[in-house]
Design brief:
45% of the residues lie in helices and 20% in strands. The chain is an alpha/beta fold. Strand 7, helix 11 and strand 8 form a beta-alpha-beta unit. Keywords: DNA-binding, Transcription, Transcription regulation. One of its GO terms (molecular function) is DNA-binding transcription factor activity. Pfam families: HTH_1 (PF00126), LysR_substrate (PF03466).
């Protein structure tokens, strides 16, 4: 039988990315949190954490974290069914991994009614859409919005729609680097803007127009900063059409070439045994995501 105080300590260390912050969340000393982790490891007979910066769960630790996530959600269902348990219930916290572009565009408007109706607080973990599922695999989150279709064992994956990206730059950048007859060759010699090491959208676009993927680029791990860098003329890049409707209408950003947009599919991943709250969030997202994402 698990001692859930020990599992709560493990979850807090991983979610808070360290023992000190975990201790503050749990209302314990850092030494007490460390002792609980050591006791958990003694009981299971092997390490549950890799003591790095930040601490990371071992393979067994990941399985325990997945279990904790699901138990928390199932406990909420039980509280709703037993009135004496429900009286002093605090708002539920859901940790969700998603890409920065979703967070900067459609996500907030989509989930606001759900959070208000169900008294839910969200902890967001931002990852590139290509790799966001790793957070769920590590047991850190209850759900994930990412581009991967295949679900993890014990989870479900459901298609939400596609986010449409356009290759854009400022008019000044286009005049300086691309001239009157822009081409894949001239674009390959111009500086691009890339969100981070896992962002392959610009490479995918260059491949679609027959260009080279060896272009020079800035790194900018911020959706809002990415747009500001485009407007300033520092480079060209793929940006969600949703995010820059105003800039396009005002002529502050223009398409670098006449090529087609890039549509990135987005899937909602969630644990099968995540309880009624996670099931309801899933139904809510499936009902409303088409207002912002391309579904054709």
């Amino acid at each position: 039988m698990f001692d859930y105080k020990l599992l709560a300590a493990l979850a807090a260390v991983v979610e808070q990315a360290g023992f000190e912050r975990a201790a503050a969340v749990l209302g314990l000393s850092q030494s007490a949190v460390s002792q609980r982790i050591k006791l958990l490891e003694a009981r299971v007979g092997q390490p549950v954490l890799l003591r790095g910066v930040p601490p990371r769960p071992t393979e067994l630790g990941q399985r325990l974290l997945n279990h904790v996530q699901q138990v928390r959600l199932l406990e909420r269902d039980l509280q709703g069914q037993v009135p004496t348990l429900d009286e002093n219930r605090l708002p539920e916290r859901l940790r969700i991994a998603l890409n920065a572009d979703s967070l900067a565009t459609w996500w907030a408007e989509a989930v606001a009614p759900f959070c208000t109706e169900h008294a839910v607080l969200l902890d967001h973990v931002v990852e590139d859409q290509a790799v966001g599922l790793k957070r769920m695999r590590a047991g850190e989150v209850a759900g994930c919005v990412c581009a991967a279709e295949r679900p993890l064992a014990g989870a479900r994956s459901q298609y939400l729609g596609a986010m449409r990206y356009r290759a854009l730059a400022s008019p000044a950048f286009q005049r300086r680097y691309l001239g009157s007859q822009p081409s894949a060759e001239t674009l390959a010699r111009a500086p691009a803007i890339v969100f981070g090491p896992d962002d392959r959208l610009q490479h995918r676009y260059m491949a679609s127009i027959g260009g080279s993927d060896g272009f020079i680029h800035h790194l900018c791990p911020s959706s809002e900063g990415f747009v500001r860098m485009l407007q300033s003329g520092l480079g060209w890049g793929l940006v969600p059409q949703l995010q820059v409707r105003g800039e396009l209408a005002r002529g502050e950003l223009v398409d670098v070439l006449s090529g087609p947009p890039i549509d990135v599919p987005l899937y909602w991943h969630h644990w099968r045994n995540g309880g009624a709250l996670l099931d309801e969030l899933t139904r809510h997202l499936l009902r409303c995501a088409g207002r912002w994402l391309v579904t054709e």
